[in-house]
Amino acid sequence: MMLRSLLFVPGDRPERFDKAAASGADALILDLEDSVTAAAKDAAREAVANRLRGKRDGAMLFVRVNPLDTGLCEQDLDALRGLSPDGVVLPKAEGGASVRRLAERMAAVSIDAPVLPIATETAAAVFQLGSYGGSGCRLAGLTWGAEDLPAAIGAATSREADGRYTAPYEMVRSLTLFGAHAAGVAAIETVYPAFRDEEGLETYARRGARDGFTGMMAIHPAQVAAINAAFTPDAAQIAQARAIVAAFAAAPDAGVLQVDGRMVDAPHLKQARTILARAGEPPMPR
User: Fold this and answer.
1) Could you give the CA distance from residue 204 to residue 250 in angstroms, rounded to a whole number?
2) Whole-angstrom Cα distance, residue 218 to residue 241?
3) Is the pTM of this model over 0.85?
4) Are 60 and 52 contacting, i.e. CB atoms less than 8 angstroms apart?
5) 222-233: per-residue pLDDT in tens?
């Protein structure tokens, strides 16, 4: 499952589904939560269920349900009974225990899908970021949010005037990144809200890829191309990765080698294999 870009689409706006699917996003997140008013929840559930029953090609289809403790989550899942989205996005997740609760509810209505927790939207959630690997449930990845948490704790904002995260939210971002990798799942960067700021988006997405995130959520179709580009290895990265893998294949007993004028060892080899896998290349000799 390659998840470079995951595009949110309001569930009560089915006329937008096809346009979103044509954006090039790897996955759509059909939203039943924040972007849908209370009065439109039932219509959104019906539209999302109809989409899941339709022809399934192109972008993967995820569904963001409402939080576990709202009473709305059960209604969401009942509307999706017997259907199999490519993933279920869980807002307000608070560790592995919350994923297990959702998985139990999904099983009760015959929904077979991995879970993508949004893992930092409450203060308690931050202390559970290392617990997802032991959840015993299928995970599609782990992601975070920078909007709900400051609201939950009474902070004015998560960002400096220039758009950078303040120290507490940089910490939360980092813990999500390491929590995802510790669990062995995709680390998904959060959204960039200023969808008209193309330069800022490109910088933000490239920073995420540099730091070890493997994909990113989007709020507008116009963001997808930049996100896909940032999370797809470029030609130079691929060429260097091939050279490293080939060098170790030619000298399997070597601990350290010189490639293109620099010393490389086992961590560089692991990184090279990851780059090639993300580029969609077939495995090279070990």
Assistant:
1) 38
2) 28
3) yes
4) no
5) 999 999 999 998
